[in-house]
Amino acid sequence: MSALDLTLDQEPVRVRRMEVITGDVGRRTWSPEEKERILAEAAVPGAVVSEVARRHGLRPQQVFGWRREARAANRFQEEGLVFAPVVLDTTPPPAVPKELPAIEVRIGDAVVRVPAGMDSATVKAVLGAVRASR
């Protein structure tokens, strides 16, 4: 028994025509507009990439690859990822007052004004004396 004897059909079938596809002939091509439309559909909040891909006869990996390429080429921006313009204010800042404002503490009808730079021990002592006199 030879290797040629191991066929399902005992009678040879004559082939009328045979087509051989080589290279990129069988691949589908997508225009940039079609890719952008599919990417926009996949970017809608709540959209599932695999469902979008299936609707268009694609694999999810293709859509993710197109998204990565588009981001790299800066052709596609997701919602919320936009830059705001920078506005520079060239007006000078207002002049700083020579004397810093004091702190004013009202306890009943008594008013204690604490100037800037006063040490905390003195402030505690004054406030304690005002409370004790009431």
TrEMBL record:
SUPFAM superfamilies given in the database record: TrpR-like
Entry coiled-coil feature ranges: none
Molecular function GO terms recorded: sequence-specific DNA binding; transposase activity
Pfam family, one: HTH_Tnp_1
An example Gene Ontology biological process: DNA transposition
PANTHER family in the cross-refs: TRANSPOSASE INSC FOR INSERTION ELEMENT IS2A-RELATED
Protein name, per record: Transposase
Origin species: Azospirillum thermophilum
Taxon lineage: Bacteria, Pseudomonadati, Pseudomonadota, Alphaproteobacteria, Rhodospirillales
